[in-house]
């Protein structure tokens, strides 16, 4: 059936594979929305066109950020994978659709910056008449897309390239003013990629950092920041305080029971930052009672840590 070959959300032609072990689910690979698994019964909330569009925008943004595929579910199940794809709640994704004008603008500009790849002034083509082409702008109607692009051009953020009969904003380049604006946005929370890693920097933890924590953070689209502490002088220096203030969230590993890690996690919590708690299986029993209440990722190998942490970041940090 032709219907089966279209993306559920944006309606564009996609590869759809029936998952043999999950007889009621399909794997979609859409050029715009990326890779996702959807139960064939669907979700009531997604039957509304408005929500399909919102979901397509959020998935498109995740793809542009370089995030991997996901399995759509009723709720986020942090440690469960379906065919290697983490389960993520449909409601959580819908809630991520921008709400305020400033969010729309900032996230649109960031999407456009991602479309340029590593060539800041290359020509960008948006397939506006196709629904998928509108997704980076978070606007469903093509007339409104053109109106918005027209404003971006008037403000000097983009320059239309193919101006024949009237203005054609399907093809445009990004201006120096655009990149200055993007730099400013990146300094704010929306584009903040920095993740502070609080852990025991001991040789025995090297593989857990490199193949577990660092890999998970990077593959989820973030940038790990670690400041090695000398074991004999574990004081909390100004640089650490500044980095914790700047970061988007923390990964705190409690293996080895370092006092500094407890302090840093507590300090970040006090600032209202998200903290992901991790600990080696052998160290669980040693955890201080103050942090035992938190849902720790308990791991027994760097690979295990990587998989669980990557999943947790995708599920909880939007
Ligand atoms: Zn799609």
In short:
The protein is an alpha/beta fold.
Q: What report would you give on this structure?
A:
The structure is a single chain. The chain has 318 residues and is of the alpha/beta class. It has three domains: 2-95, no CATH class; 101-187, Winged helix-like DNA-binding domain superfamily/Winged helix DNA-binding domain (Arc Repressor Mutant, subunit A); 192-316, 3-Layer(aba) Sandwich (Rossmann fold). Helix content is 38%, strand content 20%. The chain has helices at 49-65, 90-95, 101-115, 131-134, 142-154, 176-187, 206-219, 238-246, 259-270, 289-292, 302-316; strands spanning 15-18, 25-30, 34-39, 70-73, 77-82, 85-89, 124-125, 158-160, 171-174, 194-198, 223-225, 249-253, 274-280, 297-299. The strands form three sheets. Strands 1-2-3-4-6-5 form a six-stranded mixed sheet. Strands 11-10-12-13-14 form a five-stranded parallel sheet, with helices on both faces. Helix 3 (101-115) crosses helix 6 (176-187). The longest helix is centred in the N-terminal third of the chain and has 17 residues, at 49-65. The model has no long low-confidence stretch (mean pLDDT 86).
């Amino acid at each position: 059936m032709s219907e089966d070959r279209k993306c559920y959300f944006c309606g564009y032609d996609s590869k759809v594979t029936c998952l043999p072990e999950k007889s009621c689910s399909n794997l979609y690979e859409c050029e715009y929305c990326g890779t996702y698994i959807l139960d064939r019964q669907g979700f009531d909330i997604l039957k509304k066109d408005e929500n399909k569009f919102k979901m397509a925008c959020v998935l498109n943004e995740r793809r542009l950020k370089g995030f991997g595929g996901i399995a759509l579910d009723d709720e986020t199940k942090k440690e469960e994978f379906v065919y290697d794809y983490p389960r993520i709640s449909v409601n959580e994704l819908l809630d991520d659709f921008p709400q305020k004008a400033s969010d729309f603008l900032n996230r649109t500009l960031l999407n456009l910056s991602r479309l340029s790849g590593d060539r800041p002034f290359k020509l960008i083509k948006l397939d506006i008449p196709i629904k998928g082409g509108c997704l980076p702008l978070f606007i469903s109607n093509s007339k409104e897309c053109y109106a918005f692009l027209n404003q971006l051009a008037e403000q000097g953020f983009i320059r239309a390239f193919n101006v024949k009969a009237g203005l054609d904003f399907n093809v445009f380049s990004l201006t120096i003013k655009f990149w200055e604006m993007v730099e400013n946005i990146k300094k704010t929370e929306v584009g903040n990629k920095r993740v502070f890693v609080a852990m025991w920097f001991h040789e025995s933890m090297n593989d857990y950092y490199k193949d577990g924590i660092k890999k998970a953070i990077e593959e989820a689209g973030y940038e790990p920041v670690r400041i090695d502490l000398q074991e004999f002088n574990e004081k909390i220096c100004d640089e650490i305080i500044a980095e914790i203030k700047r970061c988007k969230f923390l990964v705190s590993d409690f293996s080895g029971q370092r006092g500094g890690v407890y302090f840093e996690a507590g300090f970040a919590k006090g600032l209202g930052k998200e903290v992901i708690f991790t600990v080696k299986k052998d160290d669980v029993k040693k955890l201080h009672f103050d942090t035992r209440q938190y849902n720790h990722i308990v791991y027994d190998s760097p690979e295990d840590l990587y998989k669980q942490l990557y999943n947790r970041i995708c599920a909880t940090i939007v």
